[in-house]
Amino acid sequence: MDEKKLLSLLGLCRKAGRLQCGHDSCIEAIRKKSAELCLLSSDSSERLKNEIEKEISYTKKKIPVRPVNSDMVEIGRAVGLKSAVLTVSDEGFAKALLKLTDTEEEVNE
């Protein structure tokens, strides 16, 4: 996974207004079914991961959840807000980010 490209794309997504940062904003996007992708920082807690997955299961919308190798500080530098969880509400950005986060085996399945 190319972390520089991923962080750069997250910054563009934020400038376009299609990135939600932080627990409350992400939960709201998931509940409104506007989220297309959910990203978790490398230092996010198991409790947060479980809570996000539970919220997604309630909506019955298939929202991919992907971990990234960057921690909250690195994400904060890229998007302007230190956050352990991010949601992307644009399908184009979500597809581009998925290509960067998925390994070759996952893409081929």
Explain briefly what this protein structure is.
The protein has 109 residues and is α+β, with helices and mostly antiparallel strands.
List the helices and strands and how they pair.
Elements (H helix, E strand, L loop, with lengths): L2 H13 L3 E3 L1 H9 L5 E4 L5 H14 L5 E3 L4 H8 L5 E4 L2 H11 L2 H5 L1
Parallel strand pairs: 2-3
Antiparallel strand pairs: 1-4, 2-4
Helix pairs in contact: 1-4, 1-5, 2-3
Structural category is alpha+beta
Q: For the largest sheet, list the strands in their spatial order.
A: 1-4-2-3
Give the overall average pLDDT: 90
Give the CATH superfamily. Ribosomal protein L30/S12
Largest sheet entry: 4 strands, mixed
What would you call the shape? Answer: globular
Class, according to the CATH hierarchy?
A: Alpha Beta
How helical, in percent, are the residues?
55-70%
Continuous helix count = 6
N-to-C CA distance: 18 Å
Instruction: Give the count of structural domains.
Output: 1
Strand content: 5-15%
What is the oligomer described by this structure?
Answer: single chain
CATH architecture: 2-Layer Sandwich
How many beta-strand segments? Answer: 4
Indicate the radius of gyration in whole angstroms.
13 Å
* H/E series: HEHEHEHEHH
CATH fold topology: 60s Ribosomal Protein L30, Chain: A
